[in-house]
Amino acid sequence: MDVVVVGSGPNGLAAAVAMARAGLSVTVLEARPTIGGGARTLDLGLADGLVHDVCSAVHPMAWASPFFRAFGLGRRVELLVPEVSYAQPLPDGRAGLAWHDLDRTVDGLGEDGPAWRSLVGALSRSTAGAVGAALGDKRSIPAGLVPGGLVGAARFGLGVLEQGTPAWGVRFRGDVAPALLTGVAAHAITPLPSPAAAGTALLLASLAHAGQGWPIPRGGSGAIVGALVEDLLAHGGTVVTDHPVRSRRDLPDARCVLFDTTPRTLVDVLGDELPARRRAALERYRHGDAAAKVDFVLSGPVPWAHPDVARAGTVHVGGTRAEMAHAEAEVHAGRHADLPVCLVSDPTVVDATRAHGGLRPLWTYAHVPAGSDVDVTEAVVRHVERYAPGFRDVIVASRCVPAAQMSDHNANYVGGDISAGAVNLRQMFARPTAALDPYASGADGVYLCSAATPPGPGVHGLGGWYAATRALRREFGIRVGPLPVD
Question: What is the pTM of this model?
Fold first, then answer.
């Protein structure tokens, strides 16, 4: 066999697709009974006919990722675009609304509309700079950035310096626009403000007004996995489930192995095959704060106090900028916030096929300390009710997966760290180590390709693609173009 890929998340499958398209024999090994890692859609048994997204649910990178664009994902998966990419309800019935339409967003932000346009709107007019700066391998100049994207990349960098420091409030006069941007920054699950959170906020916020906004795949996140697997099988690859890899003995003979896993798994499997310095560096890799998942079955839509919030594919439940910063500081200090930052998504806003028998799924996360074993269902219900009185009355069923159990369905989510590694300034660049090649393990023919490598978390497939291009060149003498061509 030519190639074995350990782990079937989007990065592992992207690596497998690249290898199979190069004419190599490829097998993907998945420890769980189902494939897809953080992009699975499953029947959780909460209601007949309803499926739930196990981790990721909304996918700006499905159209923005250079890998997925070249792969032609948009022709394989129907990406449904909400009118409102994301919303930020506030305690007094107001709300910040990031419409897909930038002008409508600016109009709704009043006196802070021009500030939003100059910061976020300027990035959304040409996303190449922000995407190139944020989604590169952090070791080279991304393809396409020169020359056209340099201005955008510089603008993105300056925005990160502003929004990632105590100067983050200088631009705004009111409280709606800063809360709207901070809700996106909170996706990083890290203290606020910080450069890493600011980078997350500016990239995702700019994508909300560009291209296909923040789309939801028809049928759920598993549609993305299905497209990748279909392509892999069409090029001769195979997938084996229920095959955990805990040691070298669990790996079939292959010229090349790519790990869509944590650095710790790589160390545990390879042991002394790794050079001592590289092994020590990988062992220093740090995981971050966590999320607990709560899936709901509802008898009707969430009764948001502000009616336009119901048009959003994603709702950030956290209140004001100050409230979210306080909640994230509490989590980082190892305490549960009284009002935790929550992410909420109702896929039926754009995908009526997700409803069944008058019921609909609701996807939520709450940010919690790493390793928390607390059932946060009541905390999520209480916080959503703050902005949607009567929410409790439409709940038919629910299921919580505490942070400590998140790794049961995806071993990369250590302690509930759904980013597969702390999102901080150091690990923005030295991820997983400061080595010149962040994908090479130091052992012959073995590479790391998970979200623990650049560009980090997100369903974009780029960690897998970057690792695969290096492996193809070094192990097989195959040089490919900057991106695969469908």
Answer: 0.96
